[in-house]
Amino acid sequence: MLEVFEPDFGRFLQVLGREGEPDRVPFVEFWIDYRAGEPLAGPPPQDPEASPAYRIKWMQALGFDYVMGVHTFGFPRSEYGLTAEDTSVEHPDEKRGWRDEHRGPIQSWQDFEQYPWPEVQDASFADFEKLERLLPEGMKVLPTLPGGVLENLVDFFGYEQLCFALIEQPDLVRAVVEAIGSRELELVETLADMDCVGALLLNDDLGFKTQTMISPADLRQYVFPWHARIVAAAHRAGKPCMLHACGNVSEVMEDIIGYGMDAKHSFEDVIQPVAEFKAQYGDRLAVLGGIDVNVLAAGTEEEVREYTRRVIEQCAPGGGWALGSGNSLPNYIPSRNYLAMLDEGKKHGVY
């Protein structure tokens, strides 16, 4: 069984800054189904007021140096999206959602003008205040955005319609990007000013298995200027910024490094194994996670352990890497496999 670590966000910062080897490889995860940690932290509470304390307990029990913070800012699109039965055997929910690629709430200038654009000043950050009062010494808070610039752009148009709009309605695309980016920049500035926040995360899925969602040229024109502003805002506050981006982003990695991103998260072996990525780019940005979700979800416990040990051997030397899943901790990953991954990190990730 895993023992409780004393959190030290400094070791995570050491990874993000590529400042050599810390005392051990830190753990990293951004999207968590907390039921996976029940064997160590107990079941999630039913009372929302108990959530901050439980999340701290969960993260510390499993060996993390930070806790995820929650705010209420987001772009409302409740009538869009699709659902189906959740078939997870491990921790099933009633429904599983995914994007509707055919349509979104903005198809015209009239839609743009009528959309109820949210304002950061109206959002609640009470969770951060509660966490700050409860944080154990050495622990910090990591916030996320409500999807990144491209993710929200895709959702506002629907992927298929966005592809047409990039050709037929570039002014509308630019206006939507401006509305998204300006608000997300303000959100990052607000979060970065909080003492309890240790680093910022820009979560923006940019691609799929073989390429980026839109052309590299369009990413450079519409999306990356806002990424650069967000990274700069985090850096002005003295805090690093990490990118979670799914998909094949090989054509734009030089851009991502060029606008100052400190770390890259989200890896899939079928695209590029994390060890190969670290060998190629690890001298210019930190590398986070990389234990393939397919292995965690479908492998046996021993397969997970062997795979994790191999990745630790490949990625730990020199520092600049944190151990975690290649993407997230969804409800279909068996608890025993996830805890086995962390256990291998405890045993073999010590420098």
| Class from secondary-structure proportions | alpha/beta
CATH class: Alpha Beta
- Count the domains: 1
- CA-atom Rg in angstroms: 20 Å
Principal-axis shape equals globular
The CATH topology annotation reads as TIM Barrel
Low-confidence stretches: none
- Percent of residues in beta strands? 5-15%
Largest sheet: 5 strands, parallel
Helix content: 40-55%
Work out the number of β strands: 9
Order of helices and strands: HHHEEEHHEHHHEHEHEHEHHEH
Beginning-to-end CA distance, first to last residue:
21 Å
- Averaged pLDDT, please? 94
Instruction: Note the quaternary state here.
Output: single chain
Total helices: the number is 14
Strand order of the largest sheet: 5-6-7-8-9
Q: Which architecture per CATH?
A: Alpha-Beta Barrel
Short description:
This protein is α/β, with parallel strands linked by helices and 351 residues long. The protein is built from 14 helices and 9 strands.
Describe what this molecule looks like in 3D.
The chain has 351 residues and is an alpha/beta fold. The protein has one domain (9-341): Alpha-Beta Barrel (TIM Barrel). It has 14 helices and nine strands. Helix 6 (149-157) packs across helix 7 (159-168), helix 6 (149-157) packs across helix 8 and helix 13 packs parallel to helix 14. The chain starts with 8 loop residues before the first helix and ends with a helix.
